[in-house]
Amino acid sequence: MTIALLFICFFALLAVGMPIAFAVGVASLIIIAFDPTMIAYVVTSKFFSGIDSFTLLAIPFFIFAGELCTESGLTARIVRFANVLVGRFFRVGLAYVNIISSMIFAGVSGSITADSAAMGSLLIPSMKKEGYDSDYAVAVTATSGTIGALIPPSILMVLYGSLTSLSVGQLFLGGIIPGFLFGIVLILVAYVLGRVRGYDFRLSHVVEDSGEPYWKELLVAFRDSSIALIIPLIIVGGIVGGFATPTEAGVLAVACAMIAGVFFYRTLDWSKIYEASFRTAILTAVVMAIIAFSTLFSDILTRNDFQNWLLGAIGMVSENRYVHLSLILIMMFVLGFVLDVTAMLIMFAAPLAIIGATLGFDPIHFGVIIVMVSLLGACTPPVGTLLLIGCSIAGIPLTRVVKTVGWFVGAQLLVCIFLMFVPEAVTWIPSLIFNR
């Protein structure tokens, strides 16, 4: 009864337009106020304990690193490298540039919103200029932005690891192959849709053709973007090697981005650093508010045995653990239509992790799959954050892109299903490094 009332209050508050962080918090407070078994001090205790984590300090540092890369022009250099690499030789080449750039930038910021906003502001206008339809450009940009939460570093992996007491380093490594699989299927869908629509664009106008030999231009582009390729190696190597915690790795990412912008490219000045800091503070405040309120929500679910209730409910359908996992993933996918991915993970990560362990799934495999399916909600209306960012940049309504983005999200969902039955694709790299 308590769980049902909690969800009813939450969705009712969402329906009247209350911001998600406050809807989560107010719904939780209503339950605490009318439930005699709940103690008032739980509110302040859980509210502050939710954000009182050294690991969570990694989040603002990774956000700041991504903002510095955008301000210093490193993002544009990443796009140039991807453009020289594939943009001029293949049909729908700029769509490939978009996806590959997101895969590279994912190794710097770890933020899906930073990735989508940075790539979208550069590539959506360029794709429209070349003749791509706006809905196609937005769909490619939004879905490729999800890769930022899989290829390390990843803010969502840091969050999931913090909430479930799992190794962030192992989660980082577990996301590598899924991240590349997301990129591959997005390229395939972009190619098929591009051929169906008659796109045959090879030379991108993101940068002017220098007239230099291809190999020389590629070397120059690689040199200019090499820092973006080095940063993820430093981050992951530091965590896996035991030289740095995720938070300290975030500091290293900021230091690398700062050094590159100030001393190598000489494009960062105090005004740009201030702008990057200001945007980081706003994004961090939003994330931390969601974490604080959602921690209270999650605690109420756990106290009322939500995990056992859910296991009992899906156990009535079948005793097969893969059927159980499939139903959990369907639930997370559907919730993604109305919930922000960050809030959804905070609310359900802890109880779902208990369910995964009860069903006998490897915790790293289970965690990566949960994060992957939750990410799809960022590309589905009406609350799809990445879709909203892309549509605002392209200047089109959300309804115009729904059909197109469905093809890309469908392909990503197939990857999730594949990985559900092939856990080695997630656990192989962590097992090599950590001797699991």
Please explain how this structure is put together:
- The chain has 436 residues and is mainly α.
- It has one domain.
- It is built from 21 helices and no strands.
- It has helices at 2-15, 20-34, 41-49, 58-72, 74-87, 93-105, 112-130, 134-145, 155-164, 168-174, 176-197, 214-240, 246-264, 270-303, 306-315, 321-335, 341-359, 363-376, 385-394, 402-421, 424-434.
- Helix 5 packs across helix 12 (214-240), helix 10 (168-174) crosses helix 21 (424-434) and helix 11 packs antiparallel against helix 20 (402-421).
- The longest helix has 34 residues, at 270-303.
- It is globular.
SSE order and pairing:
Layout: H1 2-15, H2 20-34, H3 41-49, H4 58-72, H5 74-87, H6 93-105, H7 112-130, H8 134-145, H9 155-164, H10 168-174, H11 176-197, H12 214-240, H13 246-264, H14 270-303, H15 306-315, H16 321-335, H17 341-359, H18 363-376, H19 385-394, H20 402-421, H21 424-434
Output mean pLDDT.
Answer: 83
Described by strand count, sense and barrel closure, the largest sheet is: none
Gyration radius (Cα, Å) is 22 Å
Taking pLDDT < 50 over at least 5 consecutive residues as the criterion, the unreliable ranges are: 203-207
When the domains are counted, the total is 1
Function: Part of the tripartite ATP-independent periplasmic (TRAP) transport system.
Organism: Microbaculum marinisediminis
GO cellular component, one term: plasma membrane
Subunit structure: The complex comprises the extracytoplasmic solute receptor protein and the two transmembrane proteins.
